[in-house]
Each structure stands twice: as C-alpha cells, then as structure tokens.
Amino acid sequence: MNKSLLWLVALLVVLLGLFWFLREQETESKAAAYPDREFAIKDESTINRVFIADLKGRTMNLTKQKDGAWLINDSVKASVTIMDQVLNTLAKIRIDHIPPETMNEMIFESMKLDGLKVEVYDAANKKLRSLIIGPATQDSRQSFMMIEGQSQPYAMKVPGLSGTLRPLFDLRSIEDWRSRDWMSIKPEKIQAVEVNYPRQKGSGFSIRRSGDTLKLNAENELVEISNEAPKQRLLESYLEGFSYVPLFRRENDNPIKDSIQSMIPFAELRITKESGDVEELTLVPAHGLLNDGTRDLEGPFTNYWVNRRPGGFQTVQKQQLQQWLRDYRSFF
C-alpha cells in the first residue's frame, strides 16, 4: 500500500470521526432546544428510584438496593422480570409521531381523568424525568405521553415492541409487581432439614450437616435402617433443591385458609439454617371439589397449599416441590 493511499484512509477515518462527533453534538443541541422531547434516560444504570402515581391516590415507590434488587414501598421485593422491562422502557422509549393538534384536547382530558405519573430519580435522589402517561393511540400500537410541565403530547413507542406502554406501569394490581421468588436458601447455609409424612409413618428422615459431611437419619424406629452409607451426592442434591423455588400464588386472603390449615398435611418440613433461624412448612394437596362440594381427596392435583412459618400461606406448584418429597430409602 503506497503512502498516498495510507493518507487517504487516514483522512477518511478522521472525517468519519468528525461526522459522528458533529452528529452527536447536533442531537444534544436538539434535545436542549426541545425539552418536551427528552423522554429516554440514556444510561439506565443511573436509575435508582421510580415513583408511580395515579389520579385515584394509589402510589408505588420502587427503590434499588445495593445488591441490585428492587423493593416495592420499602417492604417487598419487586419482580426482576418486570423491573427489567421498566428500566428497558425508560432507556429506549422513543417518539413515534406527533398527534394532530385536533386530538390534543381529547388526550389532555384523558390524562386528567386517568393519567399516570412516572417520576425517575438517580442515586442522589435527583429527579431525572417526570412523565405523564395517557391513553393509547387509536390502533393501540403506541401510548400518548408528555413531559410534566410541557404542553406537547407525543405518541411513544419502544423500538422492537408493538403495543401500548401503560399496562407496564399500571397500579391496578400491585400484587402483580411482586417477586415470584419464594424459597431461596443456599445449600451451604442449611444446617439441617427434617421431613415428616403424617400419613406415611416410616418414610420420614432428617439430613444434618456435620463439618464437611452430611448425615442422614431415619425419622423413627419404624424405618428400616440401612447398613450402607448414604450417597453424599444425593444428600447434597437434596439441599440444592431449596436454592430456588418460585411462588404460584399468595393465599393469605383465601376464605378457606383456616379450613385448609386444619387438615392433616401430606408433609411437614423443618429447615434449620446456619444462622440458627428456623422455617417450618406444612404441605396440603390442593384437591379440587366434587359435585357435592367436598374435596376430591383421591383425584389428581397440580398445586400444594403451603403454610410457611414465617412467610404466610401460599400455593406452590406440585412439580416444584416433588424434589423435596423423598423418603429415607432414596438416598442409598
């Protein structure tokens, strides 16, 4: 390659760099000139708090924790999936089009009656954005939104997605925002697990940590004791089953909760953690009803009602808990 060609390539690289620099400067100048168009937050990692309010007085405060988790109203964990969608939307939201001026009155009226306000803050609690979300466009492919304090609404979208954005921020069911993480205990943090089957005496067992070894004991004298040593890998695998189990549904407001809790459970578990904290769980099969209104105790079921102390009353899918429901003989 001769010198003149090298100079030409170098000049081309410099010109391309200058072009991109000037283009970025122009974009920033336009944003400064049109503050009513500054919707997106370029760096979603700067988002530390999201506050949502509707005109019915309902609010939700989402705050980022040091470990990266998000809390709802400083009390319960938010869904990781939903928060990823929220942050992605706030970072990538774009203007699709400006509605005809004749539509503005309708948009403003709808915002006054049923609008949502979304405020975004950084780690220093500095407000980064305050957005008003209004109705969907006629074809429901975008949402009308505006910057609080400005006068021009825009039809907004997230590139690659089609549909209104409002349901993502809706407050009609805060329960839907909650994390579905239910059981999450690292195996090495478990000191002991005791399993009892009230209707099947002789199948229960306990696993206890003793230094670097896990020891297996039968529930009572009804269990036929094996002379073999239990397989350590099977015991370790069993404890790994507590590392993550998702929730199906919270049932604290279930009107038949007291009746369910009075039933003889299928299984009882007691988990002792390394810290000394203890969790107790009772599992009752969630059988359906017969025509006469009684429980079909012989029929199939897909969920367990679980009373967790502490932790309340929940429904967990049967397939998620099968890994816990082994017997003494299965570890040999």
Q: Which residues form runs of ≥5 with pLDDT under 50?
A: 24-32
The assigned structural class equals: alpha+beta
Number of strands: 19
In helices, the fraction of residues equals: 10-25%
Q: What overall form do the CA principal axes indicate?
A: extended
Widest sheet: strand ordering: 4-3-2-1-6-7-8-9-5
Mean pLDDT: 89
In DSSP terms (H or I, runs of 4 or more residues), the helix count works out at: 7
For the largest beta-sheet, the strand count, sense and barrel status come to: 9 strands, antiparallel
Tally the structural domains: 2
Strand content: 25-35%
| Gyration radius, in Å | 29 Å
SSE string, helices as H and strands as E:
HEEEEHEHEEEEHEEEEHEEHEEEEH
Q: What's the end-to-end separation, in Å? A: 73 Å
